[in-house]
Design goal:
33% of the residues lie in helices and 22% in strands. By secondary structure, it is an alpha+beta fold. It has 17 helices and 18 strands. Among the domains are: 110 residues, Uridine Diphospho-n-acetylenolpyruvylglucosamine Reductase, domain 3 (2-Layer Sandwich), CATH 3.30.465.10; 83 residues, Alpha-Beta Plaits (2-Layer Sandwich). Helix 1 runs antiparallel to helix 4.
């Protein structure tokens, strides 16, 4: 029997096993469904877009509980079929694309809220973060941190994200956010309960060392936040007050600002006037007056102050990579973007923009220094690498997000995967210590 024939036989056998486990609606090999499950938001990256598609699933499973997630993984790995976990598919860089075919494990139907306790909420991996926030608020609590894409799943956010609304107070990379996880290894051993530092080893590694099936994350007392919208004639205005706003006590949930060009690309809202630089903040109600004085003292004007959890959530969707994504939609294929950080973003934005031959910044008040997304005209992957070098030379911290390889605690994840995934079946192609960036036409 040839290798190809053996692989087809394994998929057919797995299909039958999953039908028995999940029912006929819990598994599919329909071509349209396979293609739909094999894409994420990678088209945001012009570098990765040049290489799409990176891979296509051969079978997709839709478990509805954490226990079924474990059973599906066990069924696949026992037959040597690679498994690519997928949440809501909101990631931007191909981490959920099945580069080696095999099974896509779509967790989006496993969305039960298991428990809301004092300071902790537990949910299955596919539960949307907005659902967790709503459940928490019904008990007078709120999520300690949530992503700008609030419809992303808790499992996907923990496996692929790195921070979100709330990082001014709590920092990024989920440190302290994750209380416990139920994870699945590629050895047929079912669910493993991990807590504290052990749980952190499974965060932000795209399921390459263990797939998150259930998560317990931290809550804090709810705040009746205010969503403040302001505008300035130029970008210099919000830059002059961004850090001071970010240090208000009690600390804000979020402070964001954009150049006039990026602001003009945002969804139309009377509080985001065209031709002006927008600043938006999720503030504790006790700090609104102080924030207003700071803004007006810097020549800005407060456009609106809105009340309610929904308004804060809406404002959060205009933070982090979202403004630059709106800019990219205004001129498809024209812009690339980089994650950046450092005081120089606020202190000398003209130098930053000039260093990459003209650019547009979305900026956030970070936990320690300003962070943001920097957009510039795309002239090919080589120019992206050259721009990174020039930015680093002037003191800008840069993360090259145009790649799908694990980029957080790589040695730790490699060491963990040696025992949890000895055959390399969990999201293969995403954990390569020798990775040096995407090459057009290749996948590693």
């Amino acid at each position: 029997m040839s290798v190809a024939t053996a692989e087809r036989a394994s998929i057919a056998e797995l299909y039958d096993a999953l039908v028995e486990l999940l029912g006929p609606r819990g598994v599919t090999t329909d071509r349209r469904m396979l293609e739909r499950a094999s894409v994420d938001g990678a088209r945001m990256s012009p570098v990765i877009s040049e290489m799409l598609p990176l891979g296509v699933a051969e079978i997709v499973a839709f478990p509805t509980t954490a226990e079924d997630i474990a059973r599906v993984v066990d069924a696949a790995v026992s037959r040597g079929v690679p498994v690519t976990p997928r949440g809501k598919g909101t990631g931007n860089y191909g981490q959920a694309i099945p580069s080696h075919g095999g099974l896509v494990l779509d967790t989006s139907r496993a969305r039960a809220i298991v428990e809301v306790a004092d300071g902790v909420i537990t949910a299955d991996a596919g539960a949307p973060m907005a659902q967790l926030e709503q459940a928490a608020r019904e008990t007078g609590q709120q999520l300690w941190m949530y992503p700008s894409t609030m419809n992303s799943s808790v499992g996907g956010f923990l496996a692929g994200g790195s921070g979100g609304t709330g990082t001014i107070a709590h920092g990024a990379n989920h440190m302290g956010f994750v209380v416990a996880l139920e994870v699945v290894h590629a050895d047929g051993s079912g669910l493993h309960h991990v807590v504290g530092e052990e749980a952190q080893r499974y965060v932000h590694n795209y399921g390459t060392a263990g797939i998150i099936a259930r998560a317990s994350v931290r809550l804090e007392p709810a705040v009746d936040w205010r969503a403040l919208y302001a505008s300035f004639e130029t970008f210099a205005g919000p830059l002059s007050v961004l850090r001071e706003l970010g240090r208000l006590e009690p600390l804000p949930r979020l402070v964001s600002a954009d150049t006039r060009e990026v602001s003009a690309a945002l969804p139309q809202d009377p509080a985001i006037p065209r031709g002006r630089s927008s600043l938006r903040a999720i503030l504790h109600p006790d700090t609104v007056a102080t924030a207003t004085a700071l803004i007006e003292g810097a020549g800005g004007r407060v456009e609106d102050v809105r009340t309610g959890a929904a308004e804060g959530a809406k404002l959060s969707t205009l933070s982090y990579n979202h403004p630059i994504e709106w800019l990219q939609k205004s001129r498809p294929g024209h812009y690339y973007h980089l994650e950046v950080g450092g005081d120089i973003l606020a202190d000398d934005i003209a130098l930053v923009h000039d260093t990459i031959g003209g650019g547009l910044l979305h900026i956030e008040a970070g936990h320690t220094v300003p962070i943001g997304m920097l957009a510039a005209e795309y002239r090919g992957p080589e120019e992206v690498l050259a721009a990174i070098a020039r930015l680093e030379a002037i003191g800008v911290g840069v993360h090259n997000c145009h790649q799908w390889n694990v980029d957080f605690e790589m040695p730790r994840t490699v060491e963990l995967a040696r025992s949890t995934d000895p055959r390399g079946l969990l999201n293969p192609g995403k954990l390569n210590p020798d990775y040096r960036g995407p090459q057009k036409g290749s996948i590693r």
